[in-house]
Here is the input.
Amino acid sequence: MQIFLDTANLDEIRKGVEWGIVDGVTTNPTLLAKEIKRTGRKKEDILHEICELVNGPVSAEGVSLDFDGIVEDAKYLSSIHPNITVKIPVTPVGIRAIRKLHELNIKVNATLVFSPNQAILAAKAGANFVSPFIGRLDDIGDAGMRIVEQIVTIFENYKFTTKVIVASVRHPMHVVEAALIGADIVTMPFNVLEKMFKHQLTDVGIERFIKDWKEAARILGE
Ligand code: G3P
Here is the structure.
């Protein structure tokens, strides 16, 4: 399973990359706007720096809603760095754009996916990735992870090569559930990645080893 960071925060990405377990990054207009506000830097600079930090796909999203605008946004974003994957929401015009971008060899992450049907359409149009937003489904009382299960099965049934990115992840159990289902990728906020390390018994264990070792060193007069 690949781990992506769902953030545009360069400090968080630097830390994750240092740990050596970050395979890619996903951003969206909200996350980029936050980083622009925090740093005062232009979106192009931020995206370029993320791509230089991470050796893997970096998703970026435009805000145009019409076909020509979506395609132009995608061409522009993908010109920033070869690692850029363009996020396109799954709507009728979005699907048309995904097909066009597939023909142009521009990598696409079909986003705002809330049903297996949307994932099927995106895969058929040639999307490289689909991003089911599970947390937002959980928020409205739906079972977000259920659609991940369905999408993974459907893609296996038909040998679609589109990869499934579990997105809108809120806590470490989402990561475990996605891994059990066999999703290709989980993209998570930095705080979820930090929580994946955490176990109170690990902390207690380290404390005990250090205490016992110090005691032995005291006995030896070291
Ligand atoms: O990758 C999708 C993500 O950016 C949306 O997450 O937490 O805003 O639902 P969230």
About this structure: Residues 80 and 192 are 28 Å apart (CA to CA). Residues 6, 26, 28, 131, 133, 135-136, 167-168, 187 surround SN-glycerol-3-phosphate (CB under 6 Å).
